[in-house]
């Protein structure tokens, strides 16, 4: 989901400020049946190589931070694939809402190095979802036999490439009607955070990037290495379970976003300092969550301006602190726990309604009631 698109919608809907607040998250959805999970993994298995080649596509003008960085990092950590950040053009790739990264290859470089194409192309939400360069490159990769993975609003680019007609799929709740217009022949799948159909994989909102990445690892390596990696990351489960009905209450989310955007008195400018070796999954989630409160600004900085992350991603950051230090980043967490802890911290710093606003944008279930219950259970 583009933060830009959400802000534009909020700005053009001032009458929604009086609407009701966002609802509490409901009950967790049931697990996906084992037979269905196995069939999904079978549809996601590497199409060409035992050690697959994976390209994470970046639009230099803007690529959603979590959609891109999490798949790159998870698949890199698996040690079972060759994974590259591939930009449409030379030069730095700006991430949305924050960070910039130095791509490892351009699309032209990749084509020269891998003449028979990738095994997987990960397509995050791009600044321009119908970019001719992105659409044409994806089409060529699909024609070569690559599996194309549209993470979150990356599904819009798959739609513009004609890859969703006649297939089952999903996307972020915010873009559902837009995707239906682009690909009227796609069959919408509810209550699944990722869907695989004949070489094309799509996901729901931003938070789906972690489970779909682990599902890809499982499809490549089998269950044991994927389960081990999930445990190391602090992820309890990565099947496709999802509760579609919990998301899409647009009047409520626009209302909360409008209130926060117009709430000038309580605005906070926050900043997180990072060092070389920073965990890029934690950084991506933290940056995405705190940038979506609409209660101020969020910046990431390093004194040197450039750092290399834990798994080798080269980051270009601001050089000075421009705001109140965000203490949460200094606290150790497993990557899979960062989102919930970020939402808890946002609730404490701002409000429960702001935390729900962020959770709704990231398409993850969260409520202070549920979190308090979890805390009481852990203490008993």
What do these coordinates show?
- The chain has 380 residues and is of the alpha/beta class.
- The protein folds into 2 domains: 31-242, Rossmann fold (3-Layer(aba) Sandwich); 246-379, Rossmann fold, CATH 3.40.50.880.
- It is 39% helix and 16% strand.
- It is built from 14 helices and 17 strands.
- The protein has a 7-stranded mixed sheet, sandwiched between helices. It has a 5-stranded mixed sheet with strand order 2-4-5-16-15. Strands 14-13-17 form a 3-stranded parallel sheet, with no helix packed on it.
- The longest helix has 14 residues, at 65-78.
- The radius of gyration is 20 Å and the shape is globular.
- The two termini are 39 Å apart.
- 51% of the residues are buried.
- Mean pLDDT is 89; it is low at 10-23 and 373-380.
Quick description:
The protein has helices at 3-11, 34-44, 65-78, 107-113, 132-143, 154-160, 176-182, 209-221, 223-233, 250-262, 280-290, 338-349, 352-362, 368-379, and strands at residues 53-58, 63-64, 82-87, 93-96, 100-101, 105-106, 120-123, 147-150, 168-169, 187-188, 194-197, 200-203, 268-273, 296-301, 306-308, 314-316, 324-325. By secondary structure, it is α/β, with parallel strands linked by helices. It has two domains: 31-242, Class I glutamine amidotransferase (GATase) domain (Rossmann fold, 3-Layer(aba) Sandwich), CATH 3.40.50; 246-379, Rossmann fold, CATH 3.40.50.
What would you say the CATH architecture of the largest domain is? 3-Layer(aba) Sandwich
Spatial order of strands in the largest sheet: 6-3-1-7-8-12-11
Which residues form runs of ≥5 with pLDDT under 50? 10-23, 373-380
The CATH topology annotation of the largest domain reads as Rossmann fold
Major sheet size, sense and barrel closure: 7 strands, mixed
Structural class determined from secondary elements: alpha/beta
Number of strands: 17
Top CATH class of the largest domain = Alpha Beta
Q: Total helix count?
A: 14
Strand residues, percent: 15-25%
> How many structural units, i.e. domains?
2
Overall average residue pLDDT = 89
Globally, the shape reads globular
Task: Tell me the distance between the termini.
Answer: 39 Å
